[in-house]
Amino acid sequence: MTFAGWLQILIFCGIIVLLVNPLGGYMTRVYQGERTFLSFLLGPFERLLYRLAGTSEKEEQHWVGYAAAMLAFNLVGMLILYALQRFQASLPFNPAGMSAVDPQLAFNTAASFITNTNWQNYAGESTMSYLVQMAGLTVQNFMSAATGMALAIALVRGFARHSVKSVGNFWVDLTRSTLYVLLPLCVVLTIFYVFRGVPQTLGAYVEATTLEGARQTIAVGPVASQLAIKMLGTNGGGFFNANSAHPFENPDAISNLVQMVTIFAIGAALTNVFGRMVGNQRQGWAILAAMGVLFIAGVIVAYWAEAAGNPLLNQLGLTGGNMEGKEVRFGIPLSALFAVVTTDASCGAVNAMHDSFTALGGMIPMINMQLGEIIVGGVGAGLYGIFVFVIVAIFVSGLMVGRTPEYLGKKIEAKEVKMAMLAMLCLPLAMLGFAAVSVVLPSAVSSVANPGPHGFSEILYAFTSATANNGSAFAGLNGNTPWFNLTIGMAMLMGRFLVIVPALAIAGSLAAKKTVPASAGTFPTDGGLFVGLLVGVILIVGGLTFLPALALGPIVEHFAIAAGQTF
Amino acid sequence: MLKQLRPALVMIVVFTVLTGLAYPLAMTGIAGMLFPKQAAGSLVTENGKVIGSRLIGQNFTSDRYFHGRPSATTGADPSDPSKSIPEPYNAANSGGSNLGPSNPALIARVKGDMDKLKAENPGQPVPIDLVTTSGSGLDPDISPAAAYFQVPRVAKARGMSENDLHDLVAQNVQQPVFGVIGEPHVNVLALNRALDALAKK
């Protein structure tokens, strides 16, 4: 570990903290329908769209209606994306002549992109036409992000409102997330990325004759526009197979810094939106502080493990940390930091190959996802995800003092706790359940690239990443088989919708409650004690659930390597 | 649910046109106007012919050039397209080795590469980036140490002085931005073109 490495990590944290307040303020105005500097341009378009869709910004939905709208929109989106892939050969914008994507892979990819996961069982540059990349995948990058943001706002309204039946209008929240937040930022970011060297062209792949006279086919494409939303929307699906390790998808350390910042930006700012909407910004900062503690802990371990390197290689006389699967322009600190950021935030883009991380360095991304993607988390998803833990933490603290738990003046009762537990239990069910079945199926085991405990880690990582809607991988695993295409597809759908629906139920239930005034016995939820309690609950739930599985994978691999053993 | 069908269809159609077609196409137009070179892939041309991209590594094997890092990319086997074979620096199929830290294949590969490099420049420690594959398989850069390490071999193959080459490498080291962000590195294609230019003089 070096001073320069820590300084870069510090700079990153500083930028995020500085962004929270202004971006949070702007987004709050957007979701409350107030005028912003873009209203004169987008307002008329927005109203026209509502008229076409047969809704209006005045119309409010009950949580069930909100959920139905969200599910209908995602179902339609998934069907269209599936069809685009199946028919890409006969559609335009296909200069490389890609043929139809096979049905299981198309299902997997459609599930992957509507759930904001962007797990990729295909290599972009050799499978998908430009049309699918733009009109299919990029669209769902926007829509899945906007869906997540809408849901987070609905849940925040549940806390902020009282004695009402409605939680907002899904179509309005979806439209505003896209028009006022995602799209304008992406326009600026795209131009910036092209300036740094990311291609943005519809031209065919380039044929080059290298300095030594060999032929090299260089894949290009409309990369920058997809890259911008891939990071900002915490989608993570690469234009290229190597994702943000590819020099075209991440040309230098500056583009790398901007990518990491944009992964966290919206998720971190949403905590501030929450604080503003409930009328106390400290409530938002307390949530962000709990996320920050878990984030820093992950960075320390991952950076330390990667900087220490692989003992089996160090024995040969090599120094300088674990560079297998990493790019020289990023080095150890920026690769380790990126891995933590991308798995904390449910993004899943990678700038180094996680499969080649050291045993403990690769365990951190896995733990980040297993905790439920609540350390900043996916845009929107992180916020409604952490509220599930907040409710359990408040419940636990209520039990300790023998008082009905309350949060922001709302009594937390049986219904909320049941829904929170339902959301919390679905994740390990899909992560551990599918992984357990896979490791006893010979056809699934034959997909692993690395023998021994690392192979187990590859499978565990796959279902963890899918269920957490992250999308990064221990990419040695060949996921493009019927078994993995179907089960990983199902894990992604479970991890998304089995959390969203209970979260919306909580929102509806909270919005209907009366506010009780704070009294001397009220547990303050904007201070250090609450932050500590929340972090504790998250770690205890995660530890109890996942430690046994981690012991069979990365932990045993770490000790085996230390003893000089290979597999 | 049926009541939601109309808004669902309207929204997905409008947003597909807006974010899936208008946005990328407008961006392609604007990017092509503002930064035409980068938008096309930062291509490097010599005598009107494309010789590569500034950002994409090439598979240098001759002793007369500085080499990039090992690359784990693959390509289709010409004799059986359903199989893939190693094809280093295949810029149409990026990817890493994905070898785990406890995989004996990784250790054996690194050891083999180290033995070759040690024979080339005995007594010097082997820089780790010269024996590890990159994440993309297309890493255009090597560390300054990895460039200096290769100076004796290139000097011998070209009959040039080691001092001149040492200076050439030093001129081609790119420092971190503002001295902090990123790692010092050397772009191998740029270095080799500078090398050819120097040799011509």
Automatic annotation (TrEMBL), chain A:
The GO cellular component terms are: plasma membrane
Q: Where are the transmembrane segments?
A: 6-26, 63-84, 130-156, 177-195, 253-273, 285-305, 374-401, 422-445, 483-507, 528-551
Q: 4Fe-4S: present as a keyword of the record?
A: no
Tell me if Hydrolase is a UniProt keyword of this record. yes
Q: Where in the cell does this protein reside?
A: Cell membrane
GO molecular function terms attached to this record: hydrolase activity; P-type potassium transmembrane transporter activity; potassium ion binding
Q: Which domain of life is it from?
A: Bacteria
Task: State one Pfam family annotation.
Answer: KdpA
**What keywords tag this UniProt record?**
Cell membrane, Hydrolase, Ion transport, Membrane, Potassium, Potassium transport, Transmembrane, Transmembrane helix, Transport
Q: What broad class describes the main subcellular location of this protein?
A: membrane
Q: How does it sit in the membrane?
A: Multi-pass membrane protein
> What InterPro entries has UniProt attached to this entry?
KdpA (IPR004623)
Q: Which family does it belong to?
A: Belongs to the KdpA family.
Its assembly, as annotated, is:
The system is composed of three essential subunits: KdpA, KdpB and KdpC.
Role, per record: Part of the high-affinity ATP-driven potassium transport (or Kdp) system, which catalyzes the hydrolysis of ATP coupled with the electrogenic transport of potassium into the cytoplasm. This subunit binds the extracellular potassium ions and delivers the ions to the membrane domain of KdpB through an intramembrane tunnel.
Name of the protein: Potassium-transporting ATPase potassium-binding subunit
TrEMBL record, chain B:
What are the subcellular locations of this protein?
Cell membrane
From the UniProt entry, list the residue stretches annotated as the region Disordered. Answer: 66-104
Which portions of the chain have biased composition (kind: Polar residues)?
Answer: 91-101
- What does the subunit section of this Swiss-Prot or TrEMBL entry state? The system is composed of three essential subunits: KdpA, KdpB and KdpC.
* Organism of origin: Pseudaminobacter soli (ex Li et al. 2025)
A GO molecular function term, named singly, is: P-type potassium transmembrane transporter activity
Q: What does this protein do?
A: Part of the high-affinity ATP-driven potassium transport (or Kdp) system, which catalyzes the hydrolysis of ATP coupled with the electrogenic transport of potassium into the cytoplasm. This subunit acts as a catalytic chaperone that increases the ATP-binding affinity of the ATP-hydrolyzing subunit KdpB by the formation of a transient KdpB/KdpC/ATP ternary complex.
Q: What family is it from? A: Belongs to the KdpC family.
Which GO terms of the cellular component aspect does the record hold? plasma membrane
Keywords for the protein's UniProt record, in alphabetical order: ATP-binding, Cell membrane, Ion transport, Membrane, Nucleotide-binding, Potassium, Potassium transport, Transmembrane, Transmembrane helix, Transport
Query: What name appears for this protein in its UniProt entry?
Result: Potassium-transporting ATPase KdpC subunit
